Amino acid sequence: MDAEPLDAEAAETAQTPPRRRSAADTRARILTAANELFYAQGIRATSADRVIERAGITKVTFYRHFPTKSALVVAYLEQQSQAEQAWITGLRRPGDPAATMRALADGIGEASCSPGFRGCAFLNAAAEFSEAEDPVRVAVDAHRAWMLGLFTEVSAEAGATSPETVGRELMLLRDGGMVAGYLSDPSAVARVLGAAFAAVLPGNRHTVEPAS
Known about the structure:
Arc Repressor Mutant, subunit A; 10 helices; single chain; mainly alpha
């Protein structure tokens, strides 16, 4: 009995070999695995072998993209930085610094209430890598320098006589909000952090209400 002929689509599928994953796809797959593991379980607690297993690749492939674990950690933090910069930039309300900080407080509060929240990836990384010259700390410091610059710009928009000082105060409050969102009641973060931001910005002096 003769086999039934394949239709055109089936014939094309049969003749087409499986598409090989591109280098960019493989790198993204590794970074996705690293992101999940580093943030949830810690950087030092996560071995390269665990990332390799999660990504479903070979060691040869892994080390072709990342010669060392340190290189992977830096790439992970750079990816986190790009995402957070895009997020915070999207919250900016040009000409309305108070609205910008309210939006940031609300965003941090919302993130704090999301499943799997473990605080700030950069503060977490800094706690694990204490040497200032370590490439991981350099990546952390670069992101935090960008963030401080943004807070300084917002402070200048608000008319602060010393934008650098107010910017550092806002940065400190943001850091505290990220820690509180992980260690205490995340549902209170947006309200308390928003009030604290307002208390620091010139012209927006309010009493910070205690968390209920």
